[in-house]
Known about the structure:
By secondary structure, the protein is mostly helical. It has helices at about 5-20, 20-35, 40-60, 70-85, 90-110, 120-125, 130-140, 165-185, 190-200, 205-215, 215-235.
Amino acid sequence: xxxxxxxxxxxxxxxxxxxxxxxxxxxxxxxxxxxxxxxxxxxxxxxxxxxxxxxxxxxxxxxxxxxxxxxxxxxxxxxxxxxxxxxxxxxxxxxxxxxxxxxxxxxxxxxxxxxxxxxxxxxxxxxxxxxxxxxxxxxxxxxxxxxxxxxxxxxxxxxxxxxxxxxxxxxxxxxxxxxxxxxxxxxxxxxxxxxxxxxxxxxxxxxxxxxxxxxxxxxxxxxxxxxxxxxxxxxxxxxxx
Length: 241
């Protein structure tokens, strides 16, 4: 087979990969949209996801052992999350409240040596319990807070040409961070750990989690926000060895 024919065949294979996995983009977009504020438009997610799919078709290396669907799924979701963050609709006050809550949780836990309770954090912030819960709802509704926001720097599955020159060190840091994060999650109050597990592992939305725990969707939103901010406060001192 000539080089020209081989090149055409390669292009055709990549086009077929894109065509056969378009439904994957839509599936991921509709799954994400159920977990996002109403201001996010599903068509925007699909458009970003298609770009991620195209990039995946160009960079996929089947010799690495992962299926194309697994590899593409990571790239598609990452492209959608990047688009969401790029068009951040969150008021500065919500970002500020998120930082303030994480700092207050850390202060209370340093002072008490135990898990910071809602009422203690509210007192540290000098707001009412209702106002604190409203702040948590705004943080959760205004920003997509995910495990990846806590410091994971690279996808687990990447091709060699996309890796930097410090691959062994990067792998070490990534592994150490994930281990530290896993340990931090085990220290969360039981209900917060359950919410994170149902949200990230079982991929339930807030309404579905509320049905499981027999609490309102709003309360699940508060628990989720507090869990993520608690993790953020506990991971602030993390350093790679």
